[in-house]
Amino acid sequence: MPELPEVETTRSGIAPHITGQQITGTVIRQSQLRWPIPNDLEQHLKGRKIRAVERRAKYLLIKLTQGTLIIHLGMSGSLRILPRSTEPGKHDHFDLLFKTLCLRFHDPRRFGAILWTTEPVADHKLIKHLGPEPLSPEFTGDYLHKQAQGRSVAVKNLIMDGKVVVGVGNIYANEALFRSGINPSRAANRISADRYSQLAEEIKQVLAAAIKRGGTTLRDFQQEDGKPGYFAQELLVYGKAGEPCPGCGEPLKQKRIGQRSSFYCGKCQR
Fold it and tell me: Which of 5, 8, 56, 58 is catalytic?
């Protein structure tokens, strides 16, 4: 599933090609995604210019002179910049058309979404309850510590809660907790403010590194395979159950927390 760094890589990859461009039309080949693509979408978009391509959590926001196109990549979605004449593939469900090129949405599992709104994006029902961006100044250890008060849930579940902070997916939660020396099962309300300060900083560093790595292959957004060069950072624990811990050499462990696989060191993380 594309996570925050992959979505940010997508945003920075497509923005230079479509910002300032005028939309000439749309093509809807399959409208039944997570939510149906509005049938009247073209009449809202045609003739309007794109003034910015932004991101909120894992939502891409294509802002026009009036209104915003909201795109979510779901579990398997991707966006490509292609010549308008490029023949669509089996799972190419939607094209946003420009004079010479198109922005094509590809989604084999169809859990993505393409929605239109004229209201302020911050007030949209899918966005208004989201927590702060993890790379923003608002996300700090003090903020996390306050959010944890009275919560006995596992700390891993806390930092993966989109109402607490957005975009900390399973891989990044595992990695940040290991780097912080915090056991993913530890109750959120039994962690000190100092340890939350370290955790918040590690979350920022892990996500920033993933975004930086993804940003090195933005040319892929113009290739027909549609692969945007997702992060290729060195993962320390994720997917490495049984391998030696990078810190102490003990075998890394794996368990299910909140229906997600968790990887950790029973000695280094407490």
Answer: 58
